[in-house]
Amino acid sequence: VQLVESGGGSVQAGGSLTLSCAALRVRYIEYNMAWYRQMPGKEREAVAAIYTTDAKTYYSDAVKGRFTISQDSIDNTLYLQMNSLKPEDTAIYYCVARDDGSCSLTPGWTYRGQGTQVTVS
Fold it and tell me: What φ, ψ does residue 114 adopt, rounded to 5°?
């Protein structure tokens, strides 16, 4: 499984960014997908997750109402639309996947991309 993130960058507070994650060499619907982030000096935390079969989603309280996780299961691509960004959203964002049928904001995600930096000032 290869996960390749893109779309990170620098933005002012209140702005928006969209992250993408291309899932390569996989049968996409056999995996559930999520976005994690790691802020400087802190543990990695779950942001949003999605069941690829029915698009049921989960969000952390920190991003609920501001971020939207979505997918294009034809192109094997996961997205994270981030609106109303805050400086505390500054982090490296990782695309993660698992193939055990579970999907939640708890640990257990098996595969991870290289990450993309998001900086909000």
Answer: -85, -15
pLDDT in tens, the chain (121 residues): 899 999 999 999 999 999 999 999 888 888 999 999 999 899 999 999 999 999 999 999 999 999 999 999 899 999 999 999 999 999 999 999 999 988 888 888 999 999 999 999 9
CB-based contacts of 64, cutoff 8 Å, min separation 6: none
- The distance from CA 65 to its chain's CA centroid, rounded to whole angstroms, is 15
Residues forming a β-bridge with 20: 6, 79
Q: What is the DSSP string of the chain?
A: -EEEEE--EEE-TT--EEEEEEEESS-GGGSEEEEEEE-TTS-EEEEEEE-TTT--EEE-TTTTTTEEEEEETTTTEEEEEE-S--GGG-EEEEEEEE-SS--SSSS---EE---EEEEE-
